[in-house]
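Project channel, design review

CF: Before we commit to the Nocardia veterana constructs, I'd like one complete example in the thread so the newer folks can see what an input/output pair looks like. Taking Isopentenyl-diphosphate delta-isomerase.
RD: sounds good, go ahead.
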Amino acid sequence: MPVELVDEQGRAIGNCAVAEAHTAPGRLHRAFSVLLFAPDGRVLLQQRAGVKTRFPLRWSNTCCGHPAPRQSVAEAAAVRLAEELRITAPVREVGVYRYRADDPATGRVEDEWDHVLVGEFDHLPDDPDPAEVAAVRWMEADRLEADIASGPADFTPWLHGVLTAARAAR
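CF: and here is what came back for Isopentenyl-diphosphate delta-isomerase:
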């Protein structure tokens, strides 16, 4: 699958294979992260499947992925929610979180212009794709912030930035 390469201002400058974008030293590319909130403010997290090539078995936002070149971020997010968690939920973009992270366990690199999307959802998905998701859970946002601070290796390196952007927009 190709990903859209971007410059430091998020403007499209080309594309490459997803594996190439995540091979050291990495290439800056467009991505998205969805964070769904329950009506009471809890956030829906997923534990990434053990077969993931980047940050396997770490807890992360509801879902994430890469839009295809020229695909809308909202459309790509809807597709990934359906594929990974087998759910639908309306989402809206609330900002961009730019980050870079090396995964010492796999040698892969994240260098992403990450569009943050939020939405509401009111139950726990009961049939996530096991090739994508090891587990799902709801967590109170303040507790999540504290857990990330005390045990960052349990979480994906982008989760704190995504959570901060999502909470600022609520």
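RD: helpful, thanks. Helices lie at 18-21, 73-85, 141-150, 159-169.
CF: The chain is about 20% helix and 35% strand.
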